[in-house]
């Protein structure tokens, strides 16, 4: 690959300087050949894309396509990231080398190779390394960091991204030490504390749980948690056989993300087979993403499947936690306002952070230091944290809690959908939550055009934001003031650290975000609608927006949300790209 000296002109045609010997950073013949071929083909746009920008940390660390270049996941970027991390730890943490680093990996192509390259880089810097044997669930790494007192942890995974991607997730708080079984045993002992019912009670569950790990690593972990620890019977735990075992090609799903349309199709088919044999059987679908740190669920309502959104699951977990513990919770910058209202009504502490568990985990840790007992945190992207000592999302912990709450509700003759309805009824208004995902053919389309032009119109947002004077930047803003007949009562743009509810400088109470993220508040017409638009921190080609509406009745809330969603697509251009 090219050296850091490689450069590209702003105007086309590109000028790319690749000096003799500058490919020496890469000793992998496959990636070297990619760059050499692009150079021979004079494909300068592709070379500039790969060599003239570096892969950046998002909400879940590094994540990119596996191919040659400094903007991709490959041997060189993994080694360089590891060298940089080692240097940082040595500088900032006393005795970091003695504390060591925990390293794990999932089942994806090159994951084990990248993990071993990272370990090699750490060893050369003098660190002890705890390399977890074989593919593991992501929550094992942050738990391992705490358990062995390591300086940091690294998990090689791209979570729910497509098969061609990989990633490098960072967890901060003899030379090669193998303690996988010990760490796993301690982890399961920790999540056993989440089990509230006796094994006898759980063994009598009226539910059939259809489980899919999305071709990932979750099956043995979720199965042990639910059957061995919680005591659910084998006959109630039914994995989707075609998706049960790790497969780095994810052959049955286009995107191995439980959020995506169609991701749960095979689980629903298995659920239908169960229902055809017994129409009265209660069926719950449980899904983890491939590295098992996210969780999703769907429930048969008697006529159709109800797939719960991230915010809905968060509300259920939060209220269940409040009912059982009567303590505080901690949620994300795009968590539902419904949870904020319920927390206030019940007299609990509510704190909002930016999206991503690097923010949520740090906020939870700081609250613990202040003397609070943090019981729950969540973000809308199916990430949930419970009181297990892991300040990160954990899909296995979510699975065991959900199975228990669903079992208890079924025992009352109720369902999760019924429980969610009672949550809505407790709030002052009816809330409707809707998540929409748009796909860009190129990530740059999402990042450089779609969202910034809402703030700056057709001007060059990049040039304006870089102005030294904040007053100059504020004067250049061109935010819309109405949409679909609804007045916009508040705008918060965390990309440029702007919130018009804090004049005159309009500095928000949340820190700025490395990813584009704008929230619009719409008033009038008997309620409020809130729309948050943001680029994905883990999938550069994806843009997300979330719309939630409140009204005195469901029909009004639905109409309000539908109008805003339609207008976001038609007036602002946020239709599928």
From TrEMBL:
PROSITE patterns named among the record's database cross-references: PGM_PMM (PS00710)
GO term, biological process aspect, one: purine ribonucleoside salvage
Stretches that traverse the bilayer: none
Database matches in SUPFAM superfamilies: Phosphoglucomutase, first 3 domains
CDD domains (alphabetical): PGM2
Residue span(s) of domain Alpha-D-phosphohexomutase alpha/beta/alpha: 55-188, 310-425
Signal peptide: none
InterPro entries hit by this protein: A-D-PHexomutase_a/b/a-I, A-D-PHexomutase_a/b/a-I/II/III, A-D-PHexomutase_a/b/a-III, A-D-PHexomutase_CS
GO cellular component: cytoplasm; nucleus
GO molecular function, one term: phosphopentomutase activity
Pfam family, one: PGM_PMM_I
Record localization: Cytoplasm
Cofactor(s) the protein requires to work: Mg(2+)
Sorted UniProt keywords: Carbohydrate metabolism, Cytoplasm, Glucose metabolism, Isomerase, Magnesium, Metal-binding, Phosphoprotein
Family, similarity comment: Belongs to the phosphohexose mutase family.
UniProt-recorded name of the protein: Phosphoglucomutase
């Amino acid at each position: 690959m090219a050296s850091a000296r490689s450069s590209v002109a702003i105007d086309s045609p590109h000028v790319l300087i690749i000096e003799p010997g500058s490919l020496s950073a890469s000793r992998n013949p496959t990636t070297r050949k990619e760059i050499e071929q692009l150079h021979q083909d004079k494909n300068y746009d592709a070379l500039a894309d790969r060599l003239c920008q570096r892969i950046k940390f998002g909400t879940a660390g590094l994540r990119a396509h596996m191919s040659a270049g400094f903007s991709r996941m490959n041997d060189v970027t993994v080694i360089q990231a590891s060298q940089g991390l080692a240097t940082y730890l040595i500088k900032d943490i006393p005795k970091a080398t003695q504390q060591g680093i925990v390293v794990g990996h999932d089942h994806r192509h090159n994951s084990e190779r990248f993990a071993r390259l990272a370990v090699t880089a750490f060893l050369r810097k003098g660190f002890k390394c705890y390399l977890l044997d074989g593919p593991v669930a992501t929550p094992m790494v942050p738990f391992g960091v705490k358990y062995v007192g390591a300086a940091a942890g690294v998990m090689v995974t791209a979570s729910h991204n497509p098969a061609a991607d990989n990633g490098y997730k960072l967890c901060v708080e003899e030379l090669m030490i193998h303690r996988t079984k010990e760490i796993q045993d301690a982890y399961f002992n920790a999540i056993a504390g989440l089990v509230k019912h006796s094994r006898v009670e759980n063994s009598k569950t009226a539910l059939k749980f259809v489980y899919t790990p999305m071709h990932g690593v979750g099956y043995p972990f979720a199965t042990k948690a639910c059957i061995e620890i919680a005591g659910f019977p084998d006959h109630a735990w039914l994995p989707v056989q075609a998706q049960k075992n790790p497969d780095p090609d994810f052959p049955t799903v286009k995107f191995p993300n439980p959020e995506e349309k169609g991701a749960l199709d095979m689980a629903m088919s298995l659920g239908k087979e169960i229902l055809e044999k017994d129409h009265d059987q209660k069926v719950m679908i449980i899904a983890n993403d491939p590295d098992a740190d996210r969780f999703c669920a769907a429930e048969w309502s008697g006529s159709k499947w109800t797939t719960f959104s991230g915010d809905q699951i968060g509300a259920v977990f939060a209220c269940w936690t409040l009912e059982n513990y009567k303590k505080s919770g901690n949620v994300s910058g795009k968590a539902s306002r419904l949870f904020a209202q319920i927390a206030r009504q019940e007299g609990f502490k509510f704190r909002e952070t930016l999206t991503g568990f690097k923010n949520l985990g740090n906020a939870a840790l700081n609250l613990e230091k202040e003397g609070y007992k943090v019981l729950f945190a969540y973000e809308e992207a199916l990430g949930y944290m419970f009181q297990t000592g892991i300040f990160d999302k954990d899909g296995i912990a979510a699975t065991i809690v959900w199975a228990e709450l669903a079992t208890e509700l079924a025992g009352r003759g109720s369902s999760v959908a019924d429980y969610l309805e009672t949550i809505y009824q407790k709030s002052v208004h009816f809330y409707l939550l809707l998540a929409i995902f748009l796909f860009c053919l190129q990530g740059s389309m999402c990042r450089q055009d779609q969202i910034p032009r809402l703030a700056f119109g057709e001007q060059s947002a990049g040039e304006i934001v870089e102005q030294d004077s904040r007053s100059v930047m504020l004067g250049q803003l061109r935010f819309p003031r109405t949409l679909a007949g609804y007045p916009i009562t508040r705008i918060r743009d965390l990309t440029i650290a702007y919130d018009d509810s804090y004049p005159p400088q309009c500095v928000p109470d949340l820190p700025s975000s490395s990813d584009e993220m704008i929230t619009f508040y719409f008033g009038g017409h008997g309620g409020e609608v809130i729309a948050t638009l943001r680029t994905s921190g883990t999938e550069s080609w994806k843009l997300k927006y979330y719309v939630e509406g409140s009204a005195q009745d469901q029909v009004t809330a639905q109409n309000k949300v539908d109008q805003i969603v339609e207008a976001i697509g038609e007036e602002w251009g946020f239709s599928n790209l």
